[in-house]
């Protein structure tokens, strides 16, 4: 059981109309109720016992995310405004990570490449940008992911987006990662990920343990 008292706060800038698995924190009763509701609405013709299994799986994932320090896990499955016949399927997660002491002219691209460069396959785009915290860096990639069982499957291409935002002094930053099951929509996903990273902020004291507030994206 996590019983640490929050020593800082992360103000997350997030959409007001998406499903965030972690929005109720450690309140499992409220989380299970929301999960049951969305499963019923998403799979209305699935038998009740199967719906319960889906909810159980979401609750197991909820526990895994919380114990791993993840602060949000948002899911978007909706048609694009300009392409009503085309649905996007996105997953977005965020957490606080340690970063070295930084100055405004540090190459954050090199910093993240140390962690992700060797694993980023396929075309990638990298860019530094200004955030409400100070400095940020993002990448866009379309890696091929496949089974880990050694089979001959060629795998599937996904869209992968990441953004890191932190104060100029470094120490800790907010890392936001987005996955698109349809790689051609990775650029639209990048807009969402960069907005979350760019508009979210930290409040002192230092974030040795964190509380979370969510500011809706207007």
Along the chain, the helix and strand elements come as: EEHHEEHEEEEEEHEE
Major β-sheet strand ordering: 2-3-4-10-9-6-5
User: What structural class do helix, strand and pairing data support?
Assistant: alpha+beta
Taking all residues together, what is the mean pLDDT? Answer: 81
N- and C-termini, Cα separation: 35 Å
Largest sheet: 7 strands, antiparallel
User: How many distinct helices?
Assistant: 4
| Strand segment count | 12
Rg value: 18 Å
Residue windows where pLDDT falls under 50 for at least 5 positions: 1-6
What report would you give on this structure?
- A hairpin with a 2-residue loop joins β3 (70-80) and β4.
- Mean pLDDT is 81; it is low at 1-6.
- With 218 residues, the protein is α+β, with helices and mostly antiparallel strands.
- The chain has helices at 28-42, 48-67, 108-116, 186-199, and strands at 8-15, 19-20, 70-80, 83-99, 124-130, 135-141, 144-145, 156-157, 159-166, 171-180, 201-203, 210-217.
- The protein is built from 4 helices and 12 strands, in the order ββααββαββββββαββ.
